[in-house]
Automatic annotation (TrEMBL), chain A:
Keyword match Amino-acid biosynthesis: no
Keywords attached to this entry: Cell membrane, Membrane, Transmembrane, Transmembrane helix, Transport
Cited Pfam families: BPD_transp_1 (PF00528)
A GO cellular component entry from the record: plasma membrane
Transmembrane region(s): 12-31, 77-97, 109-129, 161-183, 237-258, 270-293
GO biological process: transmembrane transport
Official protein name in the record: Putative sugar ABC transporter permease
Domain of life: Bacteria
Automatic annotation (TrEMBL), chain B:
MF GO annotations: maltose binding
Keyword Transport part of the UniProt annotation: yes
Protein family according to the UniProt entry: Belongs to the bacterial solute-binding protein 1 family.
Entry GO terms, CC: ATP-binding cassette (ABC) transporter complex, substrate-binding subunit-containing
GO biological process per UniProt: maltodextrin transmembrane transport; maltose transport
Protein name: Periplasmic sugar-binding protein of sugar ABC transporter
Signal peptide as annotated in the record: 1-24
Organism: Deinococcus phoenicis
PANTHER family (alphabetical): MALTOSE-BINDING PERIPLASMIC PROTEIN, MALTOSE_MALTODEXTRIN-BINDING PERIPLASMIC PROTEIN
Length: 301, 421
């Protein structure tokens, strides 16, 4: 089909406002940030009124030589463990609450509450849970799973702090992905489910053989979003542990944040370079994600 | 036509001088940024600014109170070309700003002799970088200003008097925990954004830097001192949150719940206890804080700095000097228990009265001791990275990952490799 000049022009005219906003607030900062990653741009240069100075790959060399950055990147990648658990759980619960039972709306809303809870408020609550004298230790000792004398602060222990923070991410993201899956479930024709039921499939089989394959596009989307979010996790860590103990929860974005916002000592060049490394890792994982789901789809067909 | 032109010329000539005088009379407008003072101290600041404007008819002041984002806003405003004229920073931030070239030296604006005559010499030194003074010292505080304790807990532990030295403090912490179950005290092992443990070295008279300015906090004596705190932590005598959160926050929280017996700090701790547990506040005993071998205190103060990007540095200097002068700091001390950094405050009548109210007693005890305000260590160049590394090493020692000696060796090596001039 061919469009007249008039139509083409008209279409672009309609697109223009959004495009301009994208250019100004997304592409320009992205390009500039990428550029900064290859420059020296510190507080000292800035104060003298000097702009960024091109230094090639110097920042990346500094990053690779900094054990703190390598630790932080490792932690961020390890944080991806939360993704499969989060996706599976929210999909399963979405299936459970998609039935039309009386009062089900209340459940859906309840699961969504953490998504709209401010993180600083949530931090206070989780602090009570994880504290040495907190509810988690209390529950465990009431169940005789943890002797009273061995109670410890879950956020102060190198072995547990990481997973404790991860659970908060899980708790915060759960409702969000559940709602996305709920929307996806609406698109599965009820006949398929019925047919499977008539063929004598158990609920377990129906979930794995009918729901999951048909939900693949939604699962791909959610996994992707969740992967990127996990790589960029920052707030939970900042408010709960500040990266400790012994940097076991120090994530890559915390490194970026620290370099960019350490007051007058800021180093925008190094921060941008670190941000670029995280973006590259995210891009690589996104490709893996697509590949995995694509192959799985091909195999099914 | 010709007439018209003449008229225009005449008008222009007439207007010229008029415009000139208008410009001369137009008041200079200064921007003052403070940190976390509004709304609690609105009246004090507004009254003081009104007095300044009255004494300086050519100058108008626009006051903004900034909170967490002060430094970020400052940097952004420099970029946008509308930098403030007077900004309230602390010692560390002033040093950082001066090291990176954000500030105008105030010793170029006010005579060094006046600065030294007005403020305590140490307060001026706190803001000196590379031989120049970069701030007018403003209100301060002492970290070991006073010792406040819960007499019931001390009695229960069988202790009859307050501890008199830091080493006694350490043994008290053990006794109190063993006998009562409450913590004795929460030392500042690794407060965020500082290298707070360096303060304990300073208190014991141990050096932080050598004569050449290199980090020298890793002698066996340093390690032995750190070792005492590590043992205390390992024995469960220090709340384990002390490696994760600011000690002062934990101490005030737990004290109000009768779970910490003693707090070393300024009167501001009392204000919080007064709000959360009035009964305990009434019982609390305030006395002089125990000191280390060196007999020195640590403390900090706020500063008023003039950004290099300020368009009216002379007027700004006038305002900063006015806000931080003795009379105005004393007036501030009447509103809230701060420690003035002006020499004349030593003899102020305000700090001679003593009453039975704990806050009043604490204020009287510390108000005239501004000469002790000293963080105990000078902020090194690149302080953020260095402090983080130092605190990581302290944490590694406390959690048993490194020996105290190893931790301090590692930190000193990192400092000497990464310190910027």
């Amino acid at each position: 089909m061919r469009f007249s000049w008039r139509d083409t022009l008209m279409s672009y005219a309609f697109l223009a406002p959004a495009l301009l906003l994208l250019l100004a607030f997304t592409f320009y900062p992205l390009a500039y940030g990428t550029y900064l990653g290859f420059t020296e741009y510190t507080g000292a240069r800035f104060a003298q009124g000097l702009g960024p100075k091109w230094i090639g790959l110097e920042n990346f060399r500094t990053l690779l030589a900094d054990p703190l950055f390598l630790t932080s990147l490792g932690n961020s990648v390890k944080y991806l463990l939360v993704v499969p658990a989060l996706q599976l759980a929210s999909l399963a619960v979405a299936v459970l609450v998609s039935r039309e039972l009386p009062g089900i709306a209340l459940f859906r809303a309840a699961y969504y509450v953490p998504v709209v809870t401010s993180i600083s408020l949530a931090a206070v609550m989780w602090e009570w849970v994880y504290n040495r004298e907190g509810t988690l230790n209390w529950a465990l000792s009431a169940l005789h799973l943890l002797p009273r004398g061995e109670a410890f602060g879950w956020l102060n222990n190198e072995a547990t702090a990481f997973f404790a923070v991860m659970l908060v991410t899980f708790w915060r993201g759960f409702g969000y992905y559940m709602v996305l899956y709920l929307a996806g479930l609406q698109n599965i024709p009820a006949e398929l489910e019925e047919a499977a039921r008539l063929d004598g499939a158990t609920p377990w089989q129906r979930f794995w053989r009918v729901t999951v394959p048909l939900m693949k596009p939604t699962i791909l989307l959610c996994t992707l979003l969740s992967t990127i979010a996990a790589l960029r996790v920052l707030e939970e860590v900042l408010v709960l542990t500040g990266g400790g103990p012994l940097n076991s929860t120090y994530t890559a974005l915390m490194y970026v944040y620290a370099k960019a916002f350490q007051g007058f000592n800021f180093d925008y060049g190094l921060a941008s370079a670190a941000g670029l490394v995280v973006a590259l890792v995210a891009l690589g994982l996104a490709l893996v994600n697509f590949r995995l789901f694509h192959e799985a789809e091909g195999g099914d067909a | 036509m010709k007439n018209l032109r003449l008229l225009a010329l005449g008008l222009a000539l007439a207007a010229g001088p008029l415009a000139g005088t208008a410009a001369a009379q137009q008041p200079v407008e200064l921007q003052l940024w403070t940190w976390y003072l509004s709304p609690k101290f609105d009246t004090y600041i507004k009254d003081t600014l009104a007095a300044f404007e009255k004494a300086n008819p050519g100058i108008k002041v626009r006051w903004f109170d900034k909170q967490d984002s002060l430094v970020q806003d400052f940097i952004a405003s420099v970029n946008l070309g509308n930098a403030p004229d007077v900004v309230n920073l602390n010692i560390d931030e002033t040093q950082k700003a001066a090291q990176n070239g954000f500030l105008r030296a105030v010793s170029d604006l006010s005579s060094p002799a006046t600065l030294n005559a007005t403020y305590y010499p140490q307060s001026v030194r706190n803001f000196t970088s590379g031989g120049k003074v970069y701030a007018y010292p403003w209100y301060g505080w002492l970290n070991e200003g006073v010792l406040l304790y819960n007499p019931d807990l001390l009695k229960k532990a069988g202790l009859t008097r307050a501890p008199r030295s830091l080493s006694e403090m350490l043994s008290y912490a053990k006794t109190i925990k063993d006998k009562t179950g409450a913590y004795g005290w929460v030392p500042a092992l690794k407060d965020p954004n500082t290298a707070s443990f360096l303060g304990y070295f300073y208190s014991e008279g141990l050096p932080i830097y050598d004569a050449g300015g290199k980090a020298a906090f890793n002698s066996p004596a340093h390690a032995a001192l750190l070792g005492q705190y590590v043992n205390l932590y390992k024995g469960g005598y220090i709340p384990e949150d002390a490696v994760r959160r600011e000690a002062f926050q934990i101490a005030t929280e737990l004290y109000a719940q009768n779970r910490v017996a003693m707090i070393v700090g300024g009167p501001q701790a009392l204000t919080r206890i007064k709000d959360t547990n009035p009964t305990l506040y009434g019982k609390t005993v305030v006395t002089e804080a125990p000191l280390g071998k060196a007999g020195v205190q640590t403390g900090g103060s706020m500063s008023l700095v003039i950004p290099a990007a300020s368009k009216h540095p002379r007027e700004a200097a006038k305002l900063a000097a006015f806000l931080s002068n003795n009379a105005n700091q004393l007036a501030f001390a009447k509103v809230v228990p701060i420690v003035p950094t002006t020499r004349a405050a030593q003899t102020a009548a305000l700090f001679k009265q003593s009453g039975s109210d704990p806050v009043q007693r604490a204020t009287a005890l510390v108000g005239a001791s501004g000469r002790f305000i000293n963080p105990g260590y000078k902020a090194p160049g690149n302080s953020d990275d260095l402090y983080k590394n130092f605190n990581d090493n302290i944490e590694a020692a406390v959690l048993g990952k490194k020996t105290p000696q190893q931790a301090l060796n590692d930190a000193a090596a990192y400092w000497n490799a990464n310190m910027k001039k």
